[in-house]
Amino acid sequence: MVLARDYRFVVENDSGDDVEVGSVKIDAKRWNFDQSGVLTYEGSETEVYANGAIISDGAVGTGGSVDNSSDLFIGGDFNVTVTGAAAPDGGSVFVYYETSTDGGVTFPGISGIADNEGDIVVSVPVQTGIGNWAIEHFSL
Predict the structure, then answer these.
(1) What predicted TM-score, i.e. pTM, was given to this entire model?
(2) How far are the Cα atoms of 11, 67, 106, 116, 132 from residue 99, in angstroms, in the given order?
(3) Would residue 56 count as lying in a domain?
């Protein structure tokens, strides 16, 4: 899958508990080809999602649009970090990748897995115990 000109991430909380502000983050190290055709990675990781509000159990948190029109990243390596979720039922946090065809104005609607129009990219099983955190990696 190639990174679109405009994309965003949506996080669905199915952990069994609320996810506090800043508890879900997605960091990326994206890549493209320079003018000589050489594979080039970003200089450092970039945060492409962080929940700015509590995501209640069963609800979704929507990230802002990422404008890829100048960097022209083709793909990347992404890490999803979930911290502080108690996950009493051993639930998960789902991450969806959505694209826009109108410059980041509109994206497919999301209201849960059953009728999601975005592409699910990773399911993060939220671990209970020490620190109650999980890290998952995915590539696009």
Answers:
(1) 0.82
(2) 14, 11, 9, 13, 31
(3) yes
